[in-house]
Design a protein that fits this description.
The chain is an alpha/beta fold. It is 35% helix and 20% strand. Helix 8 crosses helix 11 (275-289). It is globular and about 55 Å long.
């Protein structure tokens, strides 16, 4: 079993290396970090090309959703993007905030930060900044953000509870997040779950969908909603790296599900001040968020 520190090092090295890859190479693999599939062009990413504020130089094809489409960003907002990469979602968010807003991208890798800053300079944007840091301990002041976004990043973080708690800390009371991520329904085969390369490729670092939503509720968030959900299918030539033919057939016919979900939640206007209050708030948020259908916990 890899330690949290070891997994972070793997992610940092992998995503540092792919900062210089082109979009086609990244998009054809699982979050850009696994060997290229010759079966399909992309596995997880959504098409940004028609989105206002889109900049192709900043799109490395590493996402699994389009959180900015659901983030309800307003003119003048302060937006934080977790795992900002080359700046793609930051520049889309900047289009929504306008010149009176502010966008802060946080990324773990020096290479991505350098690439994002170069892209911002080329676009002449002086209200978009990029900070190198660990999103488990963000270099951001408490209660400073109107919106937090992220695209296919939390699944790479070993301590997801720490990240969700940090999101709660940096959001203003009444503010919200919209995050696209990878979750599971059912258990992954052991080879996929344990392999460090697959971890850096998004899937093996994902947690169960119900657990993901519980973590959000336990942090004190309310109004938890799944804004979008789509199934992810790993092609056979990727699975062949990890599974024998019989295991692939079993995997493909099982009820196991790998999904991209985009989740929305609000930091209450009156945030809990004690551990007991936080537990009570989490239970209330969890109850409020549960409903019928597959789009809610």
């Amino acid at each position: 079993m890899q330690t949290d520190a070891a997994l972070k090092q793997i992610v940092q090295e992998k995503y540092g290396a792919i900062a210089d890859q082109d979009k086609d190479q990244n998009a054809a693999s699982c979050c850009g970090a696994t060997p290229t599939s010759n079966k399909i062009y992309n596995i997880m990413m959504d098409d940004y090309s028609a989105v206002a504020g889109y900049n192709p130089d900043a799109d490395l094809g590493l996402g699994c959703g389009l959180p900015t489409a659901f983030a309800q960003i307003k003119t003048g907002d302060t937006v934080i993007d977790l795992g900002s990469g080359a700046g793609n979602d930051c520049f889309v968010a900047r289009h929504e905030t306008g010149p009176t807003g502010k966008v802060i991208g946080i990324d773990f890798t020096d290479q991505m930060i350098a690439k994002a800053r170069a892209n911002a300079d080329k676009l002449g944007l002086n209200n978009v900044e990029f900070r190198q840091g660990d999103i488990e301990k963000m270099p951001v002041t408490a209660s400073s953000a109107d919106v937090v976004i992220s695209n296919c990043v939390l699944n790479l973080v070993p301590n997801k509870r720490a990240v969700i708690s940090e999101i709660f800390r940096v959001l203003k009371p009444g503010a919200h997040f919209s995050i696209s991520d990878i979750v599971l329904v059912g258990e992954l085969p052991e080879a996929l779950r344990q392999d460090a390369t697959m971890y850096a490729g998004c899937v093996a670092g994902a947690v169960q969908k119900d657990e993901y939503l519980e973590i959000i509720a336990a942090a004190g968030f309310a109004s938890i909603q799944i804004q979008k959900e789509k199934p992810i299918e790993l092609p056979a030539d990727i699975l062949e790296k990890y599974l024998r033919p019989a295991e692939i057939r079993e995997f493909q016919t099982s009820r196991l599900g790998i999904f991209s979900i985009t989740v929305y939640a609000v930091k209450p206007l009156s945030a809990p001040h004690t551990e007991t209050d936080a537990v009570d708030s989490a239970e209330e948020a969890g109850a409020a968020s549960c409903c019928s259908g597959s789009s809610c916990c």
